[in-house]
């Protein structure tokens, strides 16, 4: 069974749902007038991601490889951030 791929990140439908759910969850923590809120949120998500990798991989080398590969996606991520990170406007 082939999974249908969508989005700029070539995510399958389950990944898209998870991705969108995470953005909905973190949006209230990102304050337009406080750049530290973005650093805190992204740092927390990065720490959680690394913790999840350590639960799966007992060898740190595998995690280093994943992090090195993640660096290659930086240009694509930077290009799409304006479309994906929607900071709510307070009326």
Structure overview:
The chain has a two-stranded antiparallel sheet with strand order 1-2. It is built from 4 helices and 2 strands. Residues 1-8 and 87-91 have low confidence and may be disordered. The longest helix is centred in the middle third of the chain and has 22 residues, at 35-56. The chain is mainly α and 91 residues long.
Salient structural properties:
two-stranded antiparallel ribbon, 91 residues, 4% strand, 2 strands, mainly alpha, 4 helices
Topology summary:
Elements: E1 5-6, E2 11-12, H1 13-26, H2 35-56, H3 60-71, H4 74-84
Antiparallel strand pairs: 1-2
Q: How many domains make up the coordinates?
A: 1
Whole-number average pLDDT? Answer: 83
Q: Report the sheet-strand fraction.
A: under 5%
Task: Give the overall silhouette.
Answer: globular
Contiguous uncertain segments of 5+ residues? 1-8, 87-91
- What class would the helix/strand composition place it in? mainly alpha
**What strand order characterises the main sheet?**
1-2
Q: State the end-to-end CA separation.
A: 47 Å
> What is the number of helices?
4
Number of strands: 2
Can you summarize the main beta sheet? 2 strands, antiparallel
Q: H/E element string?
A: EEHHHH
- In helices, the fraction of residues equals 55-70%
Write a concise synopsis of the structure shown:
By secondary structure, the chain is mainly α.
């Amino acid at each position: 069974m082939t999974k249908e791929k969508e989005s700029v990140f070539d995510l399958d439908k389950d990944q898209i749902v998870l991705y969108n759910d995470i953005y909905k969850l973190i949006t209230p923590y990102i304050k337009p007038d406080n750049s530290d809120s973005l650093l805190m949120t992204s740092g927390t998500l990065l720490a959680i991601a690394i913790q999840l990798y350590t639960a799966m991989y007992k060898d740190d080398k595998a995690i280093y490889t994943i992090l090195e590969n993640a660096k290659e996606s930086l240009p694509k991520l930077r290009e799409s951030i304006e479309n994906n990170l929607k900071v709510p406007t307070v009326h």
